[in-house]
């Protein structure tokens, strides 16, 4: 056996870490740093490392696990919500560069199949660090972000399906019609079979395990790995690549199939082992195959491919985006956001290289294309969104909407009444009387214990944007927010924290990134009494310059201590709860009770 | 590149799963099933699979991660508690079979170095599924269990150190004195360097990360992998095997070094990825190297090695155990319990095979020895402990002692007063007055918020056997028990559950295996009042036949509902709290309040 080279592994992992961390610091996805480090460490520059059997094996396992993870991350629910504009952007952003990429390679004398590989690589979309860049550019609540995220999901799925179709025909160049049908049939059969198994058998399996009260995480982990490898093997039997099996398996290993807590933990394991260990080995070693000579020998092709990739993607997206009615400028902004290429592109290019379909030169060109397009995203997206912003065309739209309020007490209902003006509000309480009362007042209400997942589910916590825990029990508030955050991925969690000796305090909010309601420790009971007896008065006060909620509170509390800041009202009249981690913009108003 | 064989991986993983699960069902460690499945699938029987580069690479990563995990599991604190008898057992159980094994191979014409490899393999101890077998045989609270667990820890450490020493000299057969000193010096330098780094640098690193509030699990995971591979590389530079580096790294990646929650999650990842994925690949593929021909060609050697391993281990342990003063019978029982060989033996044998030091035949013999000795453990241990039990020589001794009570309220103190008769009791309360009162009454008391790890630490939760949460707040009780269980590994968690609309209920106890105090939902306040006003009366009632606490409660509550079952008193007068998951033996008494 070839020596198991710990040193090589160590250098790759350390390099990936340094490169990935540096990229992240600069606002880029880690894969960018990993590719560049790979190019530097590999034969192209330093020649410290080169490919080996060991690296190839670990990289292969890495991309299988990564594809599972990518699959898990794609939520059908989200795909369903993706809607018309996302679909348009995904299709346009794929087809146009795909076509251009194909003809470029044919024009430069490449084979049909190599041209298809390049076309797919050029067509693929990867969001540069997903929501990170959207957060940095403060786009998270814009329609662009919504379209981008939906578009990237669809694009990945689309690219992988087309890739599958293409792979089927790689060896089918010279066979007859029946052969072709057989090849296509196998691929279709694979998708049918895995989809059926994923849709019917996995939930059944999950149900059996849950009925038998099997709660071992390790057991589930091994079981899921087995399912993944079975799907991989099916893909290979169908003449496809194992990553497609891994992706399909990931698609169906989703929330609700297995015990939610275990699913969460296994999701974390796939994340850490792929993204924190094995997948970087693939991306760094992808850099080992890159040759810098293309800058001399194939500079024209390199330039054309990059141009085709960028222009094709942006223009293609913008043109296909027109029927959405959102305008060509927003289309261009979406196009610049979708211009990155990432994991899936490098994986597909790597497969092409390994199968001998594309040369080292073409592979290098595709890697440089990935690096450059990814580099371009923040720059171009900043330009285009600033442009939209200046024109007043940056439209807000949230991906998860509505508020879930725990606590049908008078204060909870009072808050709900206000929030309901803008968005859907659901109220949860375990007390039947309170819940009944809330329902009678016209709120959509769920009666049940919030700490049970069923209750969260019936309250549609999966689609909720904000969770507010407003009971007088700090610990229930905290546990509920933990559940909302950990199992239902609710992005904003706001927790009422009562001043309290011992027990769960504010410091526990940090782990889940929750914020404290009213921006300070607040006793619920006095306010409930006041509201009940009609003793409160609503006061609205406009803020003159941007200020954080806590500073505002400090400044105002010194004047009048008997008041409760309830809401912030923005200039369009939209109301949001007043909580610790928020800032009040100039011109917004604070609504408080006294 | 050799084809990446998904099918082989799938078969191995599925086989390991089936074999491991079957072994577990029968009360054996999974590794036993994995080895046997490997022999069946491999060239020895079915010939379905054979070794390949891919399998070797994954297996190698698997044992590195497994050694990290084994290292993490060895707690210095436990080693410190191991005490005299455990040390005696470990040394005797190692040295005697080691010596016998060595001379056996020499006698049969083996080389010096092969004899040393076999000697170590024969000397190693592995507890068959650690505490599982002790639970099955109801030994968990006996002195034997205590000695066994301590002994196995010491034995693993001892074996690996001797293995390191031996490895240094593998290539040093014909070199001069200075060469030998250099070789030995390198090995010693490795242990010194890694121990110093582990002892001083890692905690420093952990402190820096915690100061910088780095809370990303993936970041920590990658960082820990880097540390592991650095240690592995140091081991190889020192002329040792990388597993020794992994083991040393694991030893120092411990509680308290990094954020506790993150440590727990990373521990879980190492557990699942090694035990649930990669390590089984190693053990199954170990079976591929086994040849059944040894039963014909080397039957005598096979028999002698197995005899030497079993007799040497049991007699060696018993003889060295004599100075403990616990008698030769207990020594024999300990010896039968330590007779299993497991992961470490197979790993060492595998390294010997890979280095060409031992032949396929010797390797096969060592695998069969591992299988047979492991099979023998439950059988022999049942015999010997029943023998002790009949003679009344099965001595009880807990590994983790004492009770930690949350809640310095009158009921908590009342309970503490009783429990203090047998064991150490620590009381925790965040209320200063209550805590002061408890301290004044002579209880060792910690004032602080139980949900903070510092409080748990000052209350020495790490050494505590039982945690009782007795506040009137269900959620605090539950969160505290979760923390005790998850981060401090407290084995018995008993939680007072108040009848309560909504909030955290009994069903949440299951996840952490907690039991409800008083075996039923109980309101705290009335009893506090009664105790305070001196209205309670203690009644003791003997139980005539074995009965579960809940059945006892049902039978007795029908007669008199105003009572609180507080304790169970066994025939030796030892008191334990009355809780849901317990059984009252015939002759034990229930102490209740009314």
Provide structural commentary.
2 copies of one chain form a homodimer. Chain A is α/β, with parallel strands linked by helices and 594 residues long. The first copy, chain A, folds into 2 domains: 6-390, Na+/H+ antiporter like fold (Up-down Bundle); 403-593, Rossmann fold (3-Layer(aba) Sandwich), CATH 3.40.50. Chain A contains 23 helices and 12 strands. In chain A, strands 3-2-1-4-5-6 form a 6-stranded parallel beta sheet, with helices on both faces. In chain A, a hairpin with a 5-residue loop joins strand 9 and strand 10 (575-577). In chain A, helix 3 (53-73) crosses helix 12 (260-288) and helix 9 (177-211) packs antiparallel against helix 10. The longest helix of chain A has 35 residues, at 177-211. Chains A and B meet through helix 1, helix 3, helix 10, helix 12 and helix 21 of A and helix 1, helix 3, helix 10, helix 12 and helix 21 of B.
Biggest sheet strand order of chain A reads 3-2-1-4-5-6
Largest interface: A-B, 64 and 63 residues
CATH topology of the largest domain in chain A: Na+/H+ antiporter like fold
Q: How many strands, which pairing sense, and closed or not: the largest β-sheet of chain A? A: 6 strands, parallel
């Amino acid at each position: 056996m070839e020596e198991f080279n710990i040193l090589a592994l160590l250098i790759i992992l350390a390099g990936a870490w340094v490169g990935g961390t540096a990229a992240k610091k600069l606002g880029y996805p880690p894969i960018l740093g990993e590719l560049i480090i790979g190019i530097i460490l590999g034969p192209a520059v330093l020649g410290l490392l080169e490919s080996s059997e060991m690296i190839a094996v670990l990289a292969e396992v890495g991309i299988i696990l990564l594809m599972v993870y990518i699959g898990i991350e794609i939520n059908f629910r989200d795909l369903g919500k993706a809607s018309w504009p996302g679909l348009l952007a995904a299709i346009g952003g794929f087809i146009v560069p795909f076509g251009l990429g194909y003809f470029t390679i044919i024009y430069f004398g490449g084979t049909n199949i190599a041209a298809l590989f390049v076309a797919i690589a050029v067509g693929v979309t990867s969001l540069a660090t997903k929501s990170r860049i959207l957060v940095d550019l403060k786009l998270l609540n814009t329609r662009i972000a919504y379209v981008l995220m939906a578009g990237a999901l669809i694009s990945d799925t689309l690219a992988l399906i087309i890739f599958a179709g293409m792979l089927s025909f790689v060896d089918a160049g010279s066979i007859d019609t029946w052969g072709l049908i057989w090849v296509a049939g196998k691929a279709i059969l694979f998708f049918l079979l895995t989809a059926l198994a994923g849709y019917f058998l996995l939930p059944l399996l999950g149900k059996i395990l849950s009925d038998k009260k099997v709660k071992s995480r390790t057991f589930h982990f091994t079981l899921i790995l087995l399912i993944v490898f079975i799907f991989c093997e099916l893909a290979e039997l169908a003449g496809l690549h194992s990553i497609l099996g891994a992706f399909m398996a990931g698609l169906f290993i989703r929330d609700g199939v297995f015990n939610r807590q275990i699913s969460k933990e296994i999701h974390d394991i796939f994340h850490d082992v792929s993204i924190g260990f094995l997948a970087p080995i693939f991306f760094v070693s992808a850099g080992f195959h890159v040759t810098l000579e293309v800058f001399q020998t194939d500079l024209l092709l390199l330039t054309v491919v990059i141009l085709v990739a960028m222009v094709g993607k942006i223009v293609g997206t913008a043109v296909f985006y027109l029927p959405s009615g959102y305008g060509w400028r927003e289309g261009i902004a979406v196009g610049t956001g979708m211009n990155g290429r990432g994991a899936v592109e490098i994986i597909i290019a790597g497969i092409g290289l390994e199968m001998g379909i594309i040369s080292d030169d073409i592979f290098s060109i595709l890697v440089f294309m990935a690096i450059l397009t990814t580099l371009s995203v923040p720059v171009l997206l900043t330009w285009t969104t600033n442009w939209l912003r200046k024109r007043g065309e940056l439209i807000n739209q949230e991906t998860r909407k509505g508020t879930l309020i725990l606590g049908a007490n008078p204060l909870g209902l009072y808050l709900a009444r206000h929030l309901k003006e803008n968005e859907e509000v659901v109220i949860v309480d375990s007390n039947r009387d309170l819940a009944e009362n809330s329902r009678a007042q016209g709120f959509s209400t769920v009666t049940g214990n919030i700490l049970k997942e069923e209750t969260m589910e019936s309250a549609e916590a999966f689609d909720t944007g904000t969770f507010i825990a407003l009971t007088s029990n700090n610990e229930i508030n905290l546990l509920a927010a933990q559940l909302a955050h950990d199992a239902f991925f609710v992005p904003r969690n706001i927790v009422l924290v009562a001043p309290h000796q011992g027990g769960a305090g504010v410091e526990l909010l940090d782990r889940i990134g929750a914020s404290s309601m009213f921006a300070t420790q607040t006793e619920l009971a006095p306010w409930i009494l006041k509201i009940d007896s009609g003793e409160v008065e609503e006061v609205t006060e406009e803020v003159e310059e941007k200020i954080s909620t806590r500073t505002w509170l400090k400044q105002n509390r010194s004047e009048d201590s008997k008041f409760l800041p309830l809401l912030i009202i923005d200039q369009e009249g939209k109301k949001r709860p007043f909580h610790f981690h928020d800032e009040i913009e100039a011109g917004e108003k604070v609504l408080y009770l006294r």
